[in-house]
Amino acid sequence: MPNTPHPPRPTPFNLAAYVLEQGARTPDKIALEVLGETSTCWRYGALNAAVRGVAQGLLETGLKAGDVVLLRLGNTADFPIAYLGAIAAGMIAVPTSSALTRSEITKMAQQISPAAVLQDHTIAAPDLPDAAQIPLGVLQSYYDLPAADWHFGDPERPAYIVFTSGTSGSPRAVLHAHRAIWARRMMFEDWYDLRPDDRLLHAGAFNWTFTLGTGLMDPWTMGATALIPKEGTAIDALPDLLAQHEATLFAAAPGIFRKLIRSTLPALPCLRHALSAGEKMPVSIHQAWQANTGLKVYEAFGMSECSTFISSSPNKPCAPMALGRAQTGRRVALLAENGQRAATGEMGAIAVHRSDAGLMLEYFGAPHDTNDRFQGDWFLTGDLGREDESGAIHYGGRRDDMMNAGGFRVSPIEIETVFQNVEGVTQCAALEITLKADTTVIALCYTAKAAVDQNTLQALATRHLARYKQPRIYHHSDTLPTSANGKLLRRVLRSQIEAQYGQS
User: Which of 32, 92, 284, 420 is 20 to 30 A from 111, comparing alpha carbons?
Assistant: First the structure.
């Protein structure tokens, strides 16, 4: 696949300043509408002032450029304001899901040793006695402070950390540079067809990285308007919100589309097309959405380490079974087992070149883990694909046992660790299984002399795992299939469980 040179990124640079630069020219334009029975709006002038006020407030607490700031905030506009405010001051912002339990977020936070935690008291807080605690109310008081100067510097310096599940079972801290936002320019034409007059409605929560990037940062970079449903909005309310608020673009994970196509949708005269990411959308959902709305869905493929870098768009459409094409300016390859480029039609490892502007700096504090992901100058994503004659890339699945739960990658080991010490359980395995066409769930299979009460297992899951990681099926068995060397045969087990629970 061709690799077009990436446009030079400016220096000095600040991610937050870049995101709000276009909007600063139209201070009265609506930057964000939080949709509900009574919608609230943020105009670009107020958003810019709040972000720079947060930067000033954080600096006045004694924090400094380079400090790590952990966000434990809910599904409100405070989340992106705090995120950009920390980055504006040159700090390293760490967005995290509000669904995480206390034990989960404590383990994650211990990896990065944050200097401060921005804390909503309704969200599980990490056990970090040495970190400064800044309550939500105090954070909000910063909005009215005088504007701090943007902290400009090398675009290669750290800007934010996101967590992704690793094959070891422990979430990895992925460190990104300020220049990562510059690479997202590649999506504007090659995925979104994003325009300054767009009104983009994203179905996710503020504190999901998919929403943070696609739903907020990218529209704001273009000077467009972001539409985010209020927390608690039912999925079946989304079509009416799309119509009432004249959304021109709609972004969501495939699971949202799956639920929406079950009912008749209203006329959506302003909507140009829809966007999907997080996992591969089945062809049947593509077809049903288009049949219901007359509109297409354009997909993008990426990961926490590199955001999205393969996509389809109105300008470069692909057949629904394909992921898309490498975005203009990205350095992407499919590598055969010998490390050479895979031939057309041949399955290869999807890889991103070390020089790609969107690629992470490193796994924070884990240089060996970082080096292990590279083959020469190519970062191995862990996913497989093949390129067809048209240049479109088709997904070939994972090379490891990682699972996908509603767009979040989940390690089976992380789930198995929670249950392996349950009294009576001798072995357990977490699997992503297909119940029926287009529907997958996480199942926990375990061996024990007698079945463990399911309420006991579910209570343990609720206490230690975010909702999206919790198994939906608990399956007791006398034995689990293993190889001659005693290695668990996950594919065999998956076939057995799907035969029992799945539907044709």
Answer: 420
- Tokens standing for residue 437: 């066409």
Mean pLDDT within 75-90: 97
**Average pLDDT for the chain:** 92
Q: Does domain 15-393 have CATH number 3.40.50.12780?
A: yes
pLDDT at 167: 56
| CA distance linking residue 278 with residue 79, whole number of Å | 21
Domain assignments of the chain as residue spans, ordered by start: 15-393, 411-501
Give the whole-angstrom CA distance, residue 11 versus residue 357: 14
Higher-confidence residue of 429 and 170: namely 429
Collapse the DSSP code of 302 into the 3-class scheme (helix H, G, I; strand E, B; otherwise coil) and give the result.
strand
Sheet of strand 297-303, all strands in order from the earlier edge strand to the far edge: 40-43, 30-35, 225-229, 199-202, 249-252, 273-276, 297-303, 307-311, 325-326
Q: Tokens standing for 481? A: 């299939």
Q: Kindly state which CATH superfamily the domain 411-501 is placed in.
A: ANL, C-terminal domain (3.30.300.30)
Residue that the structure tokens 């709305």 belong to: 293
**DSSP notation for 456-498:** HHHHHHHHHS-GGGS-SEEEEES---B-TT--B-HHHHHHHHH
How far apart (Å, rounded) are the C-alpha atoms in residues 203 and 77? 14
Query: What angle do helix axes 454-464 and 102-112 make, rounded to 10 degrees?
Result: 40
DSSP count for the chain of H helices, then E strands: 16, 26
Burial 63-78 (b: 16+ CB within 10 A, else e): beeebbbbbbbbbbbb
Spatial separation of the C-alpha atoms in residues 1 and 335, rounded to whole Å: 11
